[in-house]
Specification:
It is a single chain. The protein is of the alpha+beta class. It has 2 domains: about 50 residues; about 130 residues, no CATH class. It is built from 6 helices and 6 strands. The chain has a 6-stranded antiparallel beta sheet, with helices on both faces. A hairpin with a 2-residue loop joins strand 2 and strand 3. The longest helix has 26 residues. It is rod-shaped, with a radius of gyration of 27 Å. The N and C termini lie far apart (about 70 Å).
Amino acid sequence: MQKHQNWVIEKYQEIQKCVNDYNSKWSDPLLKIIDTQLARLSQLIILLDREPDICDDKGNVIRPNDLVVYLCKDEKDRDYEHYGVVRATPNGYRVAHFFTGETVKPKGKIVRVGIGYIHLAHYTPDWLFKERPEKEHPEKASDIQIEARIQKSREKILSAKDPLWNLLSYNCEHWAREMVYNEPKATQCEEKRLGNNSKN
């Protein structure tokens, strides 16, 4: 297509050199049609050359640094969202996320805790778009800042200084929001608390 466009432009330029030798009554309408077709051809080439958008299963465009969620169920079959942060890597989009393996319930505590791990998973469309940080708080969510926070969190885990995974005080959403906004927060926990308070 690119070669064809170059050939068409070359021929068009040759014609333009001769156009003054002909009656404009005949040449002007033809040139107008050719101009329109050349413009359309250029647009088609740009579209073909463009990288296709990466979208989730709901058709939302996914960008680096977006907060995404994977829909899950807990041990009591209740729905929850597992959070991650989209990262652009030389091997394509990945999702950085924080999770735990086996959990324990310490004596006298109401929630289970576990060792937290950071994993980079391949992005797949079932990770659904949740938030675009650059729209929410652009000053806190630059690519360099997010990468530095993820690296710092990895180092803390390796030196056993990172907080334990805790369903209420430091889960996957707390971690993802801390990486993006530098503030651990979990909207799901807040919604559950409000829901429980309204039932009492």
